[in-house]
Amino acid sequence: MTFDRRIFNFAAGPATLPEEVLKQAADEMLNWQGLGTSVMEISHRSKEFMAVYEETLQDLRTLMNIPGSYEILLLQGGGLGQNAAIPMNLMPLAKHGPKADFIVTGVWSEKSFKEAQKYGTANLAASSVAEKFNTIPARSTWQLSDDAAYVHYCANETIGGVEFADIPDVGNTPLVADISSNILSKEMDVNKCAVWFAGAQKNIGPSGVTIVIIRKDLIGHSMGITPTIWDWAVQANTQSMINTPPTFAIYMAGLGFQWLLKQGGVKAIQKRNQEKSALLYNYLDQSGFYENRVNKEYRSRMNVTFFLKDEAFNAKFLEESNAAGLVALRGHKAAGGMRASIYNAMPLEGVKALVEFMSDFERRA
Ligand SMILES: *Cc1c(COP(=O)(O)O)cnc(C)c1O
After folding, report:
1. Are the C-beta atoms of 362 and 32 separated by less than 8 Å?
2. Is there an atom of ligand 1 within 6 Å of 196 CB?
3. Which residues contact 41 (CB under 8 A, 6 or more apart)?
4. Protein residue with least CA distance to atom 1, ligand 1
5. What is the pLDDT of residues 12-56, one digit of tens each?
6. Whose CA is nearest to atom 13 of ligand 1?
């Protein structure tokens, strides 16, 4: 399928980006800031790039209201890299040997839990696997250890479409949040977690850069085996430039932050995200043809998963939605069904077009 216009792209990541951001990057591609070169062809240590880097960090600080007691690292290796880096940097803080607690609510937190087992004791404190990852275990059922270095959870499970409504309270143990797919989508009190991490490719910019926000007192305790590029202390001491950083991805993330500031920041986008997801869920709930299976309290505002009650229509649904320019609605293979990822950059018009298509398809089926 080819198109002569921009589609509405519901991909989970890499995901759609604001048109203004893409246009600005295109306009600046051949001659950035009058230097006669693109931003990706200059030294990461040049004063021009360092200015981009500083402004990018400052804009993120402003958007998330990140206090000075937290370090921001811009790393490579994605969320998956941090699944290894976090235990290597934090597990040594446990009282009786390397240990951490895990709340498993879907594919991503399960991956984090499994990766951590290479570095120490990973305690499964709670899991919703028996509920097919369609809910979040009640906080009262969590079996937290008293000697864990930290508690890991995934704030938004991208594949199942399950999102924590609030940041859980785990007492004094540092809380680590995977916010890969809901960073900057709603207000979050940074002080409530010790570590926050997210790849850029869902809600910020293209893939290639991973944002890690760390309470400063937790830096400097890594295991001896920690690869240099993932040692938070090394990266904090070198402005995340112990080696060549992904300069173009950082520049694009910076444009993404500027765009979000222009939209009115996180508070404004949160309202829009609420409106977008409510439109889709309300439609699903009144339909006899489609269904969402996630506990209503924990439905993701970013990744809306749904099933056609008669799955014999799946192929036709995907083919016709694609032809209508509503692209990438197939659910992850681990979950089946359909998924509409509606991150910050997805306009309300895209969700309206999807609902219109879905109701028309339902009528014709
Ligand atoms: C996409 C995703 C990841 C993995 O990110 P990579 O950058 O591909 O390593 C981790 N956690 C969540 C919740 C995700 O959505």
Report:
1. no
2. no
3. none
4. 180
5. 999 999 999 999 999 999 999 999 999 999 999 999 999 999 999
6. 180
